[in-house]
Design goal:
globular; about 45% helix; Putative transposase; 5 strands; 2 domains; five-stranded mixed beta sheet; Transpos_IS3; Nucleotidyltransferase, domain 5; alpha/beta; nucleic acid binding; 9 helices; Transposase_IS3/IS150/IS904
Length: about 260
């Protein structure tokens, strides 16, 4: 068992120490190591390794006044059949040695990919807007057409600001907003916030301030998008899930004209 224990310990350490037996077993399978899941569970108990437990975290956005609120186009159906059909967005906060730091994220529902993010010391509109701008730039830079994309958020003032809705419209996206005071209406975005707080913020803190949290957030998102196994995706990372989707799409050859 010594060699297997070494591999389990390495995988656990490489993945922020958050993997439990199920994810470590799936990662071993991906690496061609055939072992029973019960064996992984037994060895992890013997060496004192365990996965990370998540706590619920409070909401951060402040509802905007009830003026021309966009409709809820999602109605808690957080499913998509391809990238860039549905994005969800939300904010969270982190206590540091010098005060609060806030983080905004934009997530693609199809793959759970974090497509946009920003970290700042203020909750003003620019925090959420900068995350949206990055998401739009990244996807369009990959050649994506965002026409008809649904962007879903809660009713926070940051997401209903004029500059934010204008940027959505410029990209051809449609805004969707959940109902008042109901976290289930933006459940997927809030679930990521919970994950971020558990796997990075509480797991690797305390934090000195904006700079070290921002650097750690960039590293975390790179891991989350490209290496973290997601049970909802069949235990593959978001980037791999999107790549597999592209490979299964038919290639349409241009028509030849005589």
């Amino acid at each position: 068992d010594a060699e297997l224990i070494t591999m389990i310990t390495k995988i656990h350490a490489e993945n922020y120490g958050v993997y439990g037996a199920r994810k470590i077993w799936h990662e071993l399978q991906r690496r061609g190591v055939r072992v029973a899941r019960c064996t992984v569970e037994r060895l992890m108990r013997e060496i004192g390794l365990r996965g990370l437990l998540r706590d619920k975290t409070p909401r951060t956005t402040r509802p905007a006044a009830e003026t021309d609120r966009p409709r809820d186009l999602v109605k808690r159906d957080f499913t998509a059949t391809a990238p860039n059909q549905l994005w969800v967005a939300d904010l969270t906060y982190v206590r540091t040695s010098v005060g609060w730091v806030y983080a905004a994220f934009v997530l693609d529902v199809f793959s759970r990919m974090i497509v946009g993010w920003q970290v700042a010391t203020s909750l003003y509109t620019d925090l959420a807007l900068d995350a949206l701008k990055l998401a739009i730039w990244r996807r369009q830079n990959q050649g994506a057409d965002l026409q008809g994309l649904v962007h879903h958020s809660d009713r926070g003032v940051q997401y209903r600001a004029i500059r934010y809705t204008q940027r959505l419209a410029e990209a051809g996206a449609v805004a969707s907003v959940g109902s008042k005071g109901d976290s289930f209406d933006n459940a997927m975005a809030e679930a990521f916030n919970s994950l971020y707080k558990a796997e990075l913020v509480r797991n690797k803190g305390p934090w000195r301030g904006l700079d070290d949290l921002e650097m750690a957030t960039v590293e975390y998102i790179d891991w989350y998008n490209n290496r973290r196994l997601h049970g909802e995706l069949g235990h593959v990372p978001p980037a791999e899930h999107e790549a597999l989707h592209v490979m299964t799409q038919p290639v349409i050859a241009p028509l030849k004209t005589s």
